[in-house]
Amino acid sequence: MKVSVIIPAAGASRRFGSRSSKVFERLKDRPVFIRSIELFVNRDDVVQVQLVVAEQDLEMVRTRYAANIGFMGVGLVKGGPTRTDSVRNALAGVAQEADYICVHDAVRPCVSPLWIDAVFAAAQKVGSAILACPLHGTLKRVGQDERIAETLRREGLWEAQTPQVFRKEVLLAAYEKAGGEATDDAALVEAIGQPVAVVRGDPRNVKITTPSDLALAAAVVDLLPKPKPPKPAGPFEEARW
């Protein structure tokens, strides 16, 4: 499995309330987008990582984060006016050797390697897979007057997360036929009739949209499940020739 990773980081961050994009906010000791990149750059199955940033941020990223980007071998891509446009720009530069494409939001830095392993494995089996969590709360549809218009049934409803992983030809076909904007890539793949597997995610995979989300991410980022270290060989195994 050879995976090209696209990390969209070109959002306007209107809800975060900061002058700069939320992807540049520091999560403990490192910017949010750097932590998201680090989830993938050292994986043996990842052959490429592309970071998509807004046009007005390109020069700043090239200069301020040149050492980080260069050391990790990350390619920079100019974003578009929408998320779909930004991912489409990165698709044009996907490595020829990649057979899968993973799209992961730059504002989701709290992902365990175990969850990435699981969604990669499901995509390899089905062709497309995403992380998602079932909804447990009571859902209300609220009108413009901020009054409840309807209570929705939550059975079968899941909240999509990222990473989302697709066979390269499937995602390219979905974007070629896309007629408009989508809030995630799975919606475009669904629209062309391709199956998408759901891998149960975790609420700790928080999407940083507001300052309170950043505080939550800081509380959980060091507590995520980690792969078990390899079991050390015993005396017999060490002594074998």
Entry summary:
The chain has 241 residues and is an alpha/beta fold. It contains nine helices and eleven strands.
Mind telling me the CATH superfamily name?
Answer: Spore Coat Polysaccharide Biosynthesis Protein SpsA, Chain A
Give me the count of strands.
11
The structural class is alpha/beta
Low-pLDDT residue intervals, each spanning 5 or more residues: none
User: What top-tier CATH class fits best?
Assistant: Alpha Beta
Structural domain count: 1
Topology as a string of helices (H) and strands (E): EEEHEHHEHEHEEEEHHEHH
Provide an overview of this structure.
- With 241 residues, the chain is of the alpha/beta class.
- The protein has a single domain, classed as Alpha-Beta Complex (Spore Coat Polysaccharide Biosynthesis Protein SpsA, Chain A), CATH 3.90.550.
- It is built from 9 helices and 11 strands.
- The strands form 3 sheets. A 7-stranded mixed sheet has the order 5-4-1-6-10-7-11, with helices on both faces. A two-stranded antiparallel sheet has the order 2-3. The chain has a two-stranded antiparallel sheet with strand order 8-9.
- A hairpin with a 2-residue loop joins strand 2 and strand 3.
- Helix 6 packs across helix 7.
- 36% of the residues are buried.
- The model has no long low-confidence stretch (mean pLDDT 92).
